[in-house]
Structure formats: structure tokens, C-alpha cells
Amino acid sequence: MLILNWTNTHFININNLQIMNKLRTLLFMALGALAMVGCNKEPQKEPTPAPEPTPAIQSFEITVDAVTKKTVTYSVTPELLDKDYVAVVTTAESLAGLEDEAVVEHVYDEIKAAAASAGLTFAEKMSAIAVKGASQGVVVDGLAVNTEYAVVVFGVDPANNWESTTFPELKEFKTAAVEAVS
Question: What is the pLDDT of residue 98?
């Protein structure tokens, strides 16, 4: 009887092994089919982000119209007539060796000093000196004789605390020397 039980159990185990082998085979076939479907699928392309808008590049044509011992007359024609910009005259020596950002900072420091001496805030002074469109025949007086100067022009954004929006452009000139009296 013991042998019979063993034999019955043995047959049952064989049947279980056959069923398990069939299930394993089906499972591998299903996994293979899934793998084939996954392999045939084209790789997903990542969406291309939209390019960031390029800000309009503002350039300026600066012309020194006339220079005397103590005055300069200049004109500025911006490429974009509807954008704000500032134009100031400062000594060329004060700009020597400065990078673009430092030139802008230097001009801002001069504007802040002029604003303080006039009892104005920086924003009030900037509102007074910023222009749109062409500036023709701007006269600056009180310059030193026989001295090198530069007209410095750069775009500004009044809605963003008057931050510069362009690189500064410069046009250098030298005031006339005093003629010797003979």
C-alpha cells in the first residue's frame, strides 16, 4: 500500500510538473510576445522645446556734429525708434579699460549723483533723460578744454527699474585746445 501511494503521488507529481511546464512555456511565450512588441515600437522622441524669443537687438548711430573748447553737439539715431535709451557724455579716461557692464554701472553712478544733487530719485532722473526716437543736435556744455570724452548710449527698460537692455555704444571725441595768443 505504501508503494501504491508513492506511485499515485508520483503520477500526480508528474502531472503537476507537466502542467507547470506548460504554464511556464505559455508565460515565456507571453513575455516574448511582449518583448517583441516593445522592441518593434519606435523610441519616443522627446518634444522639442520652442525656442526662446530672441530680443530685438538695438544699435545706435552716434554722430558728433560739432566740438568746441567747452561744448559738444551730438546726434543719436537708434535702430528701433520706439525703445527707450539714455545718452550721456563722460570722460574717456573714466571708461578706460572697463567692460560693458562696468561702463553701464559707471553711467548709472553718474546719473545717481546728478539725481541726488538735484534732489531727485534715480527713477525721476532717468525719466527725465531717457528718450525714444532720434535725438538731433544735443548740446552739452561745461566740458574741460583739451580733454577726451565719450558719448555713451545704451537701451533701458523703464518697466524694469531702468535696467540696461543693450550693450553700451561709445563715440569718442576731444574738446579743442586753447589757442596760444601771440
Answer: 95
